[in-house]
Amino acid sequence: MDGTPLSSSWLVHLRAYVNTDLPSSHQIEGRDAIAELISKNALSLPRLVSEMGDILTSTDAVMRARGILLLGELWMHFVAKPFDATILHHFAAFFAARLEDWHSLHGALIGSLALLKREKHVGVVDNDDAKALLKSALENVEVQALVQEDRMFCLEFFECLLVGYPEAISSHGTLFVERLCGIIDGEKDPRCLLLGFHIVELAAQIFPDPAGYIGSVIEDLFDLLSCYFPISFTPPPDDNWGITREDLSVALMHCLGATNLFAEFSIPFLLDKLSSSLKNAKLDSLKFLGFCVSRYGAEELRNHSTAIWMALKQELFSSYKVEEAISKERDNQTFHEALNCLQACLKLQAGNKDDMLSLERNSLLELVVEDPFINDFFDCISGHLIQTSARVTVCSTGNGDIALERALTTIKETGLILTMAAKASPASCFAVTHRIFPNLFNLLRPGICIKGSDDEKKFEGIPVKSSLWFPDDVLLTVLEVIRLIIEGVKGLADSVLKLQGTYSDVKWIGPLQLNSEDLLMSFIAITVSGLQNRMDIDAILIDRTWNVGVAGLQAVGSFPPQLSILSRVQYDYLFSFLKYITLSKSEATSLWNRTVDAIRVICTAEEHFSCQGLGSMFRDSLIASLLKEVDNYSESLPVLCSLKALSVLCTGGAEILTNSTRKLTELLCEDLKKFVRIASEEDNTVKRILPLSQGLLDYILPCCMKVDMDVEVLLGLAVNLWHIVENFPEDGLLKDSRDNIQVLQNCLGIVQICVFHCDAPSQRYLMLEIVGPFVEATSHIFGSLGLKDIWLIGFFSSMIISLRPSIHIPRAECVLHRLCAGAVSLSCGSVNLIASEAVGCLVNKWQSNGVEMQVSNGISLSIAEALDLIIKGEWVSTALCNQTGTACLEPEKALVLKMGCIKLLGYAGKGLAIRGHIGVSDIAMLLLSLVHCKKILVDAKQKNLLQFLWPNDEERLSIASAAADALGFIAKDLGSSGWRQSHLVIKPLHQQRFFVSMLAPLELVLKESEEQERIILYYAFANLISSIPANVILMESKRVFPFVLESLSALSSAEMFSTSLSSVLLVLSAILVDKNGAELASRHLSAVVGRLQSLIQYQYSVTVRETSLLCLGTLVALPYARVFPFRTQVLKSLTNALDDPKRSVRKEAVRCRRAWELLTR
Amino acid sequence: MNGSALINANPVVHERKERVTRREVHDSSAEPIDALEVFDHVRDIKDPEHPYSLEQLKVVTEEAITVDDKKSHVMVVFTPTVQHCSMATVIGLCIRVQLMRCLPPRFKIDIKVAPGSHASETAVNKQLNDKERIAAALENPNLSELVEDCLAPASY
């Protein structure tokens, strides 16, 4: 050994591994080092074995075992490394021999398992080697006597053999089966059990012969397995394996279902366990029964069908359990599990294909269909119908209540069972529907006669009267059951299609088709009955009536066309009924909504089965009628409803939607053209344009966005509307009524959405189209803008807002100038805001992506220059249309104008802040000067604008607070600022940047200001801080803290600041719970306590009082020595809070007081 | 108390009532202190003997509390679990201390055991409403510690 050249490097590792005195980490390192060498091909396995000779043949059992374990673990490590067949063969023989050695069994097992686990492409052991391994294992290994880990390796070993070498197993079949029984007998470990169950399952599948190996021990095997049923296992709390009771239960279930040799034992066994009082046992038996029977096949089911049905009936019908029937607590889980089991069994019922009427004697299906429970069901219904027709009130006595309750339960349960049966298989579907529907409709038919019983005229006209029927609980439940059965049949249709691909043999739909007329009519009748009686019965029942009616119609109508149960005439009738409801929008909104949705479902069902049928034809005709309805503007169906219906119906296809949108936009354009020319508000156009524009905005356009509509249509709509506005007469007659402004807002919204969804080329085209006319049209005086100009500014602004950042805007300087003027101009108050927003968007997207904005003469304008343009404020004079400033304006108007300017600055600042541009500071300084009323922070170019905005004495407070609001607006996050998403250029953390940049100037102005001027500055501070995330504030807590304290005392002076006050308090509470913040607070504790003490008396806001108490309560967590001196003082001040008029404040006070009380202890 | 046998070894434990979340009133109208609010203060006091709240043992109920906000008066009638309960005075003391802390000082607080529920009813009532005896009791460190223990917020 010593002579080998490699000795120094790897024999050390080998020795480390076999040396049991070393800690296990060293051993593992040694093994890994050797594995590394082998994987690098620096060491071959034969070489290793030859070097290990001494160890492997040592008489020291421990050393020998370590040596073999090393080889075993190495093989496990190299499960995916290719080796050639010779090596594999040698090692297989080696491990097979070592299995005899009790001491080294562990390593040998690992090694054998590793060899069997290998996949084909890396070389596997051949069949003979596998046989040798198996033989040795069967002869030498006593599985039950091993420790858990070895048992598991052993089981895995058998599992691998069963999967990969079934012939090997069959060659030692008898011995294997004998061992197999031993393996499972008394096994307690969940991991081993999982494997054990799987092995039995595999073995049973390999030897299906009743006289085979498994067949001979099947009874013993079943006895061993059945001990585990029902599985009761609670995973230990520190379980790392994640095995649950369900895993074990499923494994056992698969094991029992593996071969039908088990059937003769397991079915009686499970039926017996079904009567157990343990809920788990019951549920498991039902689950096992369903699974096993479906695995065993129809033959086994036939042998046990009577027993199974009797047992299931026990579980299905609460009425059979007398004592439980009264208690309302029905065991839903058991019921559903029993239903599933029944379904699994019925699925096996193939039935006679040619003659579905003749049922096999004593088959489960026959037992179900001929069972008396169905007669009970009919008796319940007929009994009830006789009672109601005789006008005997059922609910008059207490007894009646119980009887009614029972009847309802019976009907519901039967309904669920029948539904399940209808869903199970074609044969059971046929049998159930054939048995149920004719009899059922014999009972119900008297109520269905709708109008004249003349056969030919039955399908003409719309039913207006449904006799006899009055919607009550029982009737509705029966109809619901019918609907459920139909849905069940539809479920079957789906699964048949999935299984067969087509519908070849569809006799099972026959009974439904035969009774289609009754089905259709009963649902129509109940709907009509609901309409007739809606004044007399309560809203919940009415709602349910319509629910049942429409859902039933939907179920009847939405069968796949090949299986359609309605005839053409019946379809037409159904559709005309639905159309009638849709087009006659009565007060029954919920019925209307449901009907529209049902139509959508019926039509989309057809698309689901990919064939064009009557449904889509009907939908198209309905859409046409709805459009006509809008066109004609009739009073019967409001325009908004038509558009809502259209939006629901159009979700089916992009094409229909495109067409409808085209038509609607034509109508809108038409209306808009007339809109300004017609003075009379009585005219239909004026009346229609409002709901039309509203509906387009609310229903149709959102729909368009969902289906990825053609850009052309959207662009067309925007351009058309623009051209109409462009051609407005100069002297429009529109009044500034609320409706008219709403129309304008709707149109602006429509344009904005349309342009937003246009792609870049269309937007570019649009800009070329509209900028010229806009600049031309607004070149004249802004002082007296006409209707046309206002609309133009609005439309133009909406389009600018929606532009993508990459779009080049021609004559940008002009555009900016005009938009600024539009934003403040007094004569277009309704579009001021949208123009301001447009300015914000414009500066936000200006020159991003390197695209330069060009001014009229072709020279590009940088963002800084654009900003200068805003700040110099020349547009103010354009808006004012004179050079004299505000002097000639009335004071109120001047103030409105100034406020508009400040708002505009806010928007422009926000646009810049969002993109993270430094220029925002110019605007912020301007605003801050206005808040502060001192011109210390501004430079020369801002003088002009500041001069204009400078407040006189009366205006001072309003201007200052408006400027403070504008600062707050800049700091707000996008979501809550009301700025619609519009392709903005957003820099992350822009809010934080802005906030931090504002702190220094604030400090400066606060230092310079007088006591009374500070209040408004603190108001601005509160605005700024209110929407900044807490962690940013905490990072700056040192700078922010003095502001917070000062603003708490400053802002408490007036009611108008109460909201700001509470947001500052929230900031304080965040600071107090932070570690650094708490330290700050403890240094200034006297000030903090003082402020909070006065705030708990703050009369204007409950929130402020509550929050200050909360803050006061958190103070006790500060260092004891600092807090304690304030205890008496605080407790004294809390006495008043305990008597607060508001309960929530008192509660908080009690909590706070308790915290301070406890300080002594 | 300690070491000796429990006075009521097996008290009947009742379910706690659902906590009522009151509708928030956002106007400025005053919300006078009512029985439920007072009950909220005392329901979670721990029984001196058992790890249950007074509510669970049905020692206090909302119905047995009368509040007159205008006249600044509160009356709490509590029912000891057994007739001869020597803890009745301690329970009463706990209730009083708790209410003294939670209610504004303008209130006069009367605490009584329910008529017929205690062997020495008059004596207990007298003791519970005697200012000096209350003050003296609270100066007793053992007793005040017991009271604080019962008042400490706990989760049952």
UniProtKB/TrEMBL annotation, chain A:
Residues 737-1115 form the MMS19 C-terminal domain. The keyword Nucleus applies. The keyword GTP-binding does not apply. Keywords: DNA damage, DNA repair, Nucleus, Repeat. GO terms for biological process: DNA repair; iron-sulfur cluster assembly; protein maturation. It comes from the Eukaryota. It is found in: Nucleus. Its main location: nucleus. InterPro entries: ARM-like (IPR011989), ARM-type_fold (IPR016024), MMS19 (IPR039920), MMS19_C (IPR024687), MMS19_N (IPR029240). It holds the Pfam family MMS19_C. Key component of the cytosolic iron-sulfur protein assembly (CIA) complex, a multiprotein complex that mediates the incorporation of iron-sulfur cluster into apoproteins specifically involved in DNA metabolism and genomic integrity. In the CIA complex, MMS19 acts as an adapter between early-acting CIA components and a subset of cellular target iron-sulfur proteins. Belongs to the MET18/MMS19 family. This is MMS19 nucleotide excision repair protein.
From TrEMBL, chain B:
Keywords: Chromosome partition. SUPFAM superfamilies: Fe-S cluster assembly (FSCA) domain-like. The keyword Metal-binding does not apply. One of its GO terms (biological process) is chromosome segregation. The keyword Zinc does not apply. InterPro entries: FSCA_dom_sf, MIP18, MIP18-like. Residues 38-98 form the MIP18 family-like domain. Belongs to the MIP18 family. This is MIP18 family-like domain-containing protein.
